[in-house]
């Protein structure tokens, strides 16, 4: 039996992006911008994770 490729569940990229963006924003004292950038990165990661299968 062939096992399916392991990939991120839907929305995991966004959660990761928000965490990443929050840390970035906290470092630069711009949490709102950090979250916005994090959500962008997260949707991008999710999109490519879905395309790659």
UniProtKB/TrEMBL annotation:
Regions crossing the membrane: 7-26, 32-49
Species this protein is from: Negativicoccus succinicivorans DORA_17_25
Keywords: Membrane, Transmembrane, Transmembrane helix
Domain Glycine zipper-like: 11-50
InterPro entries: Gly_zipper-like_dom
A Pfam family matched in the record: Gly_zipper
Keyword Membrane: yes
Superkingdom: Bacteria
Protein name listed in UniProt: Glycine zipper-like domain-containing protein
């Amino acid at each position: 039996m062939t096992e399916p490729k392991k990939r991120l569940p839907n929305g995991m990229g966004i959660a990761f992006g928000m965490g990443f963006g929050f840390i970035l924003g906290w470092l630069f004292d711009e949490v709102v911008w950090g979250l916005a950038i994090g959500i962008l990165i997260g949707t991008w990661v999710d999109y490519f994770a879905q395309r790659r299968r």
